[in-house]
TrEMBL record:
Its EC number is 2.1.1.14. Keywords: Amino-acid biosynthesis, Metal-binding, Methionine biosynthesis, Methyltransferase, Repeat, Transferase, Zinc. This is 5-methyltetrahydropteroyltriglutamate--homocysteine methyltransferase. The gene is metE. The keyword Amino-acid biosynthesis applies. Belongs to the vitamin-B12 independent methionine synthase family. Zn(2+) binds at H642, C644, E666, C727. It comes from Syntrophus gentianae. Zn(2+) 1 binds at H642, C644, E666, C727. Binds 1 zinc ion per subunit. Pfam families: Meth_synt_1, Meth_synt_2. One of its GO terms (molecular function) is 5-methyltetrahydropteroyltriglutamate-homocysteine S-methyltransferase activity.
Length: 755
């Protein structure tokens, strides 16, 4: 049997790619040097795969920015505005597509999340007139290079059905009309690759989700052609992030030489069903090492599954693999020196995951790896019984949840009356929470972290910042103030650092998009609050003003979604624990005089499972977690929530069930059209649709903002409208922030005339 991983993180164990890219963009690294950094990363990653003992190394999975963008480039699918000839897409065009060109006023391609991960890809743009042709097939070059270096390559492509499913057409153009043209280019590259390798991995994760109506028959048609092109090599159709379920038949009838399934997630579609129906000439690649988490695989369990499958299909048709590309996991656990040794012993990053896949292969083929297997079993057992992972008091509290914990005391209508003591004007103005995080703030935080600034010194600095933003907001004439969040490095990390059950890595970086990486906190144990987390800053801020100051928290679903979550407890249970910890914080804020408390849930929608039919279960526990957090307060206390996006169609019901008194959302770019969902649904509570885009430094005029407010009032009764920007202001500069907010307040005041 053979072993492989579906890809490897590109960014480098020490984020070498990030640094190289940023130097290149700043003009301090030459194109040749950028290429040589990326070549050495590719070679290093191949070596890691080979040295761990894997049969193949993945090629073509590396990317300077994004592998979906690379696929567009490979197909010659370069939108017209970049003015490039398909034959010559150089680094300038490539990065223009990725990042836009401010000077030349050329917009970047749109970016969005890759399935239900935190990775972002660039959305392919397909037009009726686009000419596709194979251009700069880096994958062929890389595959040849890997052979030269003595590796057995397995090139990795984003499959055409997934590619088109993620693409957008111009206007109402149906992108599927171009499938045949795209297939021709795929066939060409597959034919070329097939002379170089045994397997070509073709990723079709879209098969694990809901498919467009035309996708199934397009899939079959396309794969007939691709399998004709593949010659003596085999296509390995890879599916991941969920089980195949109703698309299993489709996958089995693809005619591909191999099928990869992800057995780490989804409903664990009984693999029996797949094995039973696997065509005799189809190999099965089984993903049992999770490519998206940081935890060790349970080898005993994995081996028993593999032994069972092997018994039925024989070793020759079996491949052992990671579930998906470990690009969603950090690179190397060996760089972590500060973790508690016990917790560290539970973990495996990408490098270790390669070793795990190999270990499974060795054990299955009868090599003596008993000692390593025994060590694995011991670690897993110790984790199960570790007091670090389990806290009875927390378990009991969560189990003791009662119906009244999930409900505010009165319905919204009555709360609205009770909240009249806030004495707010019509069209009340506020901001989303953060104010510009200046280099000075960052510098002071760093000094404090390094121990070069005392606790008192840092506290004094933070209070000075809070003082500054409170004064500014009063001068601007905003109605509901915020403290500005200067003490927060990141909206999840800040809370993770203050709760039990979390730990932090030094180098656990994962690519989010391009050169941007995130270092998610790790939830390894039961979550609890050690002490109040935000009360001090809130109280200080409120003491400076007679206007209401918002208490400001990150919600439980967002904390969950933006962390690495333990795999020994259901996500819904982990979320509930976070919710209880935050509930205490909400009550402490209320006791300290907060009249308004905002609980941000920007990640609510991204936690949605791949399949529409699983959405309901997720939304049920996600909404419940929000309600646990928010429902303990009195009617007089106003609860706000905030979400950073503008697509609410699929979740409007759940948004209403969250029952926040006020929700602020992003909406300026959709010119308020998204409010139609709220109108149709007759959303009963208050809404603050963002009236200006904070993603750009552009200052909106007063007239422009007034127009947006008027439009908003066509959808939502004006008594229920709030006026605020789209999102927090932390990435903005002070200059544009002041001007924009001044215009925003002026617009709201102008709208009040006559009311
Ligand atoms: N309160 C946060 C801020 O203003 C909200 C950010 C977010 O939702 N992403 O920065
Ligand atoms: Zn936001």
């Amino acid at each position: 049997m053979k072993t492989h991983v579906l890809g490897f993180p590109r960014i480098g164990a020490r984020r070498e790619l990030k640094k190289a890219l940023e130097d290149y963009w700043a003009g301090s690294l030459s194109p040749q040097d950028l290429i040589s950094v990326s070549n050495s990363l590719k070679e290093r990653h191949w070596k890691i795969q080979k040295d761990s003992g894997l049969s193949y190394v993945a090629t073509g999975d590396f990317s300077l920015y994004d592998h979906v963008l690379d696929t567009s480039v490979m197909l010659g699918a370069v939108p017209e505005r970049y003015g490039a000839k398909a034959s010559g897409i150089g680094p300038d065009t490539y990065f223009q597509m990725a990042r836009g060109d401010v000077g030349g006023n050329i917009a970047a391609m749109e970016m969005t999340k890759w399935f239900n991960t935190n990775y972002h890809y660039l959305v392919p743009e397909i037009s009726p007139a686009q000419r596709f042709s194979l251009s700069s097939p880096a994958i062929v070059k890389d595959t040849r290079r890997a052979i030269e270096l003595g590796y057995l390559p397995k090139p990795v492509l984003v499959g055409p059905i997934t590619y088109l499913s993620l693409a957008k057409g111009e206007g109402s153009f149906n992108v599927w009309e171009r499938i045949e043209d795209i297939t021709d280019v795929y066939a060409e590259v597959i034919a070329e690759l097939s002379t170089l390798c045994d397997w070509i991995q073709i990723d079709e994760p879209v098969l694990c989700g809901d498919l467009a109506p035309e996708a199934p028959w397009r899939f079959l048609e396309t794969y007939v052609k691709l399998n004709q092109a593949v010659g003596k090599a085999g296509l390995l159709l890879t599916t991941y992030f969920d089980s195949l379920d109703e698309h299993l038949d489709l996958a089995l009838s693809s005619g591909c030489a191999g099928l990869h399934i992800d057995l780490t997630c989804g409903r664990n579609d009984p693999y029996d069903r797949i094995v039973e129906r696997l065509p005799e000439d189809m190999s099965l690649s089984v993903g049992l090492v999770d490519g998206r988490n940081i935890w060790k695989t349970d080898m005993t369990k994995a081996l028993s599954v593999l032994r069972d499958i092997e018994k039925r299909i024989g070793p020759d048709r079996l491949l052992i693999a990671s579930s998906c590309s470990p690009m969603h996991s950090p690179v190397d656990l060996n760089l972590e020196t500060k973790l508690k040794p016990e917790i560290r012993s539970w973990m495996a990053f990408a490098v270790q995951k390669c070793e795990e896949v190999c270990l499974l292969g060795d054990a299955l083929s009868g090599k003596n790896r008993d000692e390593t297997l025994r060590a694995n079993a011991e670690v897993l057992e110790s984790r199960l019984s570790s007091p670090l992972a389990k806290n009875e008091a927390i378990r009991e509290r969560c189990a003791g949840i009662s119906e009244d914990m999930l409900h505010r005391k009165s319905p919204y209508r009555e709360r609205k009356k009770a909240q009249s003591w806030l004495d707010l004007p019509i069209f009340p103005t506020t901001t989303i929470g953060s104010f510009p995080q200046t280099p000075e703030i960052r510098k002071n935080r760093l000094l404090f972290k390094r121990g070069e600034l005392s606790r008192d010194g840092y506290k004094f600095f933070i209070e000075k910042e809070i003082h500054k933003v409170v004064k500014i907001q009063e001068e601007l004439g905003l109605d509901v103030l915020v403290h500005g969040e200067p003490e927060r490095n990141d909206m999840v990390e800040y809370f993770g650092e203050r709760m039990g059950g979390f730990c932090f890595t030094d180098n656990g970086w994962v690519q989010s998009y391009g050169s941007r990486c995130v270092k998610p906190p790790v939830i390894y144990g039961d979550v609890f609050r050690r002490a109040p987390m935000t009360v001090r800053e809130f109280s200080f801020a409120q003491s400076l003003t007679s206007k209401p100051m918002k208490g400001m928290l990150t919600g439980p679903v967002t904390v969950l979604c933006w962390s690495f979550v333990r795999d020994d407890l259901d996500r819904s249970e982990v979320c509930r624990q976070i919710a209880f910890a935050l509930r205490d914080e909400v009550l402490d804020l209320e006791r300290s005089g907060a009249k308004i408390i905002q609980i941000d849930e920007p990640a609510l929608r991204e936690g949605l499972p791949l399949k529409g039919r699983d959405a309901e279960a997720y939304l049920r526990w996600a909404v419940e977690a929000f309600r646990i957090t928010s429902s303990g307060v009195d009617d007089e206390t106003q609860i706000h929530t905030h979400m950073c996006y503008s697509e609410f169609n699929a979740i409007i019901q759940s948004i209403a069930e969250m029952d926040a008194d006020v929700i602020s959302i992003e909406s300026s770019r959709s010119r308020m059209e998204l409010l139609d969902v709220f109108r149709v649904f007759e959303y009963p509570n208050e809404i603050g649709p963002g009236v200006y885009d904070i993603h750009s430094p552009r200052v909106p005029t007063e007239a422009e903002i007034m127009k947006l407010i008027q439009r908003a009032a066509e959808y939502i009764p004006k008594e229920r409208l709030w006026i605020n920007p789209d999102c927090g202001l932390k990435t903005r500069g002070w200059e544009e922030t002041l001007k924009s907010l001044k215009n925003m307040v002026a617009a709201a005041k102008a709208m009040r005339i006559g009311h």
